[in-house]
Every structure is written in structure tokens, then in C-alpha cells.
Amino acid sequence: MAGKLDEISEAIGRLRASVGDIRRRLDDNRTLQERRHADTSAALHDLAQKLDAHAAAVEAIRPTVAALALSRSRLATFASIGFAAVIVVGWLLQAAVKYLLSVAFSHFH
Q: Global pTM?
């Protein structure tokens, strides 16, 4: 009976050591998780500040971008009108040259 009690006592001792090791690991894990949480929170806070600064910069240049878009639209409109005007002037010039040549050659007949 004494041998059996010794085995039980040793098993209880091993269990206590295992429980103590598990508690130590849990404490280490908790400490690590708290440190990770603090690091992640700080990184997210820094990222939020950078995003706020970026959003402010975007808002500051938004009117400029809108004006450039309008300028591009105006430029495209003026380019289309100018191109049409060049075509019309070309047709008129062609018609005038044909007319002048026909008048000039009609005298030689």
C-alpha cells in the first residue's frame, strides 16, 4: 500500500509541476498578446493619422482637379471647333483656287 501511495504522490507532484508550467506559459502568452495588442494599436493609430492627413490633402487638391477636368473639357471643345474651322477654311480655299484657275484657264480658250 505504501508503494501505491508513493506513486500517487509522485503523480500529484508531476501534475502540480505540469499545472505550474501551464500557468507560466499562459502568463507568457498573455504578456505576449498584450504586447502585440499594444503594437497593433499603435500601428493602427499611426495609420489613422496618416490617412487623415492624406484625406485632408485630397480635399485640398479636389478643386484643382475639378478645374483641370473642366479645362480639359474646354480644350477638347476648342480643339474640335478649331479642327472644324480648319476644314471649312480648307474647303473655301480649295473652292477659291478652283474658281480662280477656271477663270484663268477660261481666257486661254
A: 0.46
